[in-house]
Design a protein that fits this description.
The protein has 230 residues and is of the alpha/beta class. Helices cover 56% and strands 18% of the residues. It has a 6-stranded mixed β-sheet, with helices on both faces. A two-stranded antiparallel sheet has the order 2-3. Strand 6, helix 4 and strand 7 form a beta-alpha-beta unit.
Length: 230
């Protein structure tokens, strides 16, 4: 009888150990699975494109101005709206300036290069002696590596198409320019002239927050289309 009882106890002990091992293995498997998921999530986060927005002018550099409107203020406000929409769309965003301050052109390019951003977008307003001149034009540079010139032009085309569709603005096309901020950067870069402050119709639009927000949305759509196509 004692032998039978002893065997019964040993059987229970063995069964308990086996269960503990199974549970332990299950816990370890779950831990590894969760760790893998976290690593994948972190990797995906790192892959989100970084975009640098460069609001033109600032500080003592007013840019073009007409009546009581200054380019530096409109650029900064547009950039603020653009940042909001890009971040909402899931992009990481850096602004070369977020307040009314002067920043040398090479410093702006340096910020984008050091951040290793995937795209730079410089925001400006236009002016002309002819007050009838109006419309949007986007510049990119060809004075760089062929791949970057090609990507910059693709970005310009995507943004221009979206801008025209959402704002109804006139198009002045995509042009080659030798501006420092798009020449000295190492990633696809464009400079957007969002309209003419010297044109009464466009000056009124550019002084309206709702219109600037629409401009920002259209640029965001263009950036989205660019990344989807490339």
């Amino acid at each position: 009888m004692m032998k039978i009882f002893t065997i019964f106890l040993l059987s229970l002990l063995f069964s308990s150990c086996a269960t503990n091992k199974t549970t332990s293995r299950s816990d370890a498997s779950a831990y590894k699975h969760n760790s893998a998921e976290k690593k994948v999530a972190a990797h995906k986060k790192e892959m989100v494109p970084l975009i640098v927005i460069d609001p033109g002018h600032g500080g003592f550099d007013l840019g073009t101005h007409s009546k009581s409107y200054e380019e530096k203020e409109i650029c900064l406000k547009t950039a603020g709206f653009l940042r909001k929409h890009l971040e909402k769309a899931g992009y990481h965003v850096i602004m070369t300036r977020s307040r009314d301050e002067y920043l040398p052109l090479k410093k702006r390019a340096e910020i984008a290069n050091q951040a290793k951003s995937q795209v730079l977008i410089s925001i400006h307003c236009n002016s002309a002696k002819n007050t009838n001149a109006k419309g949007i034009e986007i510049f990119y540079t060809q004075k760089t590596e062929p791949w970057r010139a090609k990507k910059s032009k693709q970005l310009a085309q995507a943004v221009l198409s979206s801008f025209l569709a959402q704002t109804g603005a006139d198009s002045r096309g995509i042009k080659e320019g030798n501006f420092c901020v798009i020449r000295e950067t190492k990633m696809p870069s464009i400079l957007i002239e969002t309209g003419f402050l010297t044109n009464e119709e466009e000056r009124k639009k550019l002084s309206n927050d709702f219109y600037l927000d629409t401009v920002a949305k259209s640029i965001t759509t263009g950036v989205d289309n660019y990344f989807k196509s490339t």
